[in-house]
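Hi V.,

You were right to ask for the full record rather than a summary. Here it is.
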Amino acid sequence: MTTSDLWDADAADRYDEAVADMFAPDVLTPTVDLLADLAREGRALEFAIGTGRVAIPLAERGVDVTGIELSQPMVDRVHAKRPDLPVTIGDMATIVVPGEFSLVYLVFNTIGNLRTQAEQVACFRNAARHLGPGGRFVIEVEVPSLRRLPPGQAGVPFDISDSHLGVDTYDVVTQQAISHHFTRQPDGTYRRGTHNFRYVWPSELDLMAQLAGMELEGRYAGWSREPFTADSESHVSVWRRHGEPGPQSVQTLRT
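Predicted structure:
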């Protein structure tokens, strides 16, 4: 059983509005540009496809896109927009879909939805299992904000606006974290929501890739391939599968 939070119908219905800034052309266009370039003439598989924010415009570029998603209500939202986009319901760390892909990708911090290191390692292995030789696995994820966490303080605000307050709280021993969202409603009240995740460092991801038979090809501060530096708050990392994976079943990758 996965440790991921499960998005229910209410959360799925509100999702696109809650992340409306992620649909902005200056955010979405560079994302789709890079993924289309990496997919080339091959097929693309999105882990945790959500409501299709990235997959649908990527498919509109002519890329053959397939998705995996844990939440049926989120898949329903995808199919309300694009009925012909194939999506398999299941855990991105274990479920296998037919065929071979030149690109597997996972965006918007979603690797953290897997809240154990073992599940995150299994996710990398599952990506490698779906890739043909030379195929790429791409992840977009924040660099943990612990540099902004003074001793004795548990939380770091990540958004403060008239309509929303967001605070991340961290357990620096277990790498478990919670995003706390306070969203202003039309009547002036606030709705509180939480999202659990496991934060992960770039070097830790590189080791997961190595265990899965992949090597780092590029790391950028954003989708426009900006240089990644010590001050970067997020990264887009690309690993390349360099050989056939070992004979491992789905069951042996779960702990």
